[in-house]
Amino acid sequence: MSDDGHQTNGHENVPSRQRTRFAGISSRAYEHPADRSALVALRKLSGFDTVFKALSGLLPERSLRLLFLSDSVRVSERQFAHLNDMLRDACYILDLEKVPPMYVNQDPQPNAMCIGLDEPIIVVTTGLVELLDEEEMRAVIGHEVGHALSGHAVYRTILLFLTNLALRVAWIPLGNVAIMAIVTALREWFRKSELSADRAGLLVGQDLQASMRGLMKIAGGNHLHAMNVDAFLEQAEEYESGGDLRDSVLKILNVLPRSHPFTTVRAAELKKWAESRDYQRIMDGHYPRRDEDKNTSVTDSFRESASSYASQVKESKDPLMKLVSDIAGGAGDLGGRVRRGFGGFTGSGGPSSAPKDTPPNGTTRTEDPPGDES
To answer: Is 18 helix (H, G, I), strand (E, B) or coil?
Structure first.
């Protein structure tokens, strides 16, 4: 950021307090490895390329733009001027040359999105504008600008279209199954992309507490005096580590229909990143540039994503992830550990039934040595 506060790169408004600007920053700087991996998996999904190419030419993007132009309020110097300042600030900080149009849509549900195929559009609801203070809103707008810089808007638009289409053709069994497979994969990617965009929001706002408060308000409403960030983060700890394997399975089932990760999980992930060396390096000016993107090795990206996943599984306190980690490490007595993890839930006779490790003929089974399971 220029110290004199003058117009730079077409952005007249600079942040109201001193913030670091990231000239030429690449989205690789803040992308969550899970975002990258999920997008790779999505692109490998059978039929996705065909659907993507077809929809890219058929989606009524002009109609979408006209809809918001006609039935929402476009942010500008004369309408929602404070949001316009924040938008231009966010684009300035992340060095996004073209400021995307932003609209405020009447909807009491707090929400924001970045959509569009050729050019991104940012939409925020009145519920969100009324819920958040200036610093919290700045992080949200930075979050959406992060989506724009990462090119997420295209896939988000297709997700919205396919979700709507799936509802229309639900009566066609095979057609709906094919569409829902892609919708499920898109949702998995989008949940991961939210973690990347949260990081972009922090880079724009540069106020971790504001980012935490914003997520907490989205979860619990505008009762900040009755909430506590530390207690909110403790919920994430309890969510991740509590329960048994049944709870782990239920967590997966609960998140599948959602477009966003759970807010406590997002808060914990963001705090972890904010305390990392990677974040500090970016703040010190050491980050990948967009002009280097063309030289990026796909293999290196895959390796980084795989390494991140392996590390997450190893460090996770979730019972299922701990079991996966132990399996990878060659832990023995797998069957017994799974049964204990489900707390007797899988046995029809309940916990008081005969030990399941005893063969039907009553002989004693000799345990296999650790690491020899096939």
So the answer is: coil
* Tokens, residue 2: 């220029």
In tens, the pLDDT along 225-255 reads 999 999 999 988 887 776 555 555 554 555 5
Give this prediction's pTM.
0.72
The reply to whether 144 belongs to the active site is yes
Residue 122's closest CA among 107, 130, 111?
Answer: 111
Burial 137-165 (b: 16+ CB within 10 A, else e): bbbbbbbbbbbbbbebbbbbbbbbbbeee
Reported for 313-319, long-range contacts at CB under 8 A and 24+ positions apart, including other chains, are 316/240, 317/237, 317/240, 317/241, 318/240, 318/241, 318/248, 318/251, 319/243, 319/244, 319/245, 319/247, 319/248
Catalytic residue among 31, 136, 144, 194: 144
- Alpha carbons 119 and 312: distance in angstroms, whole number: 35
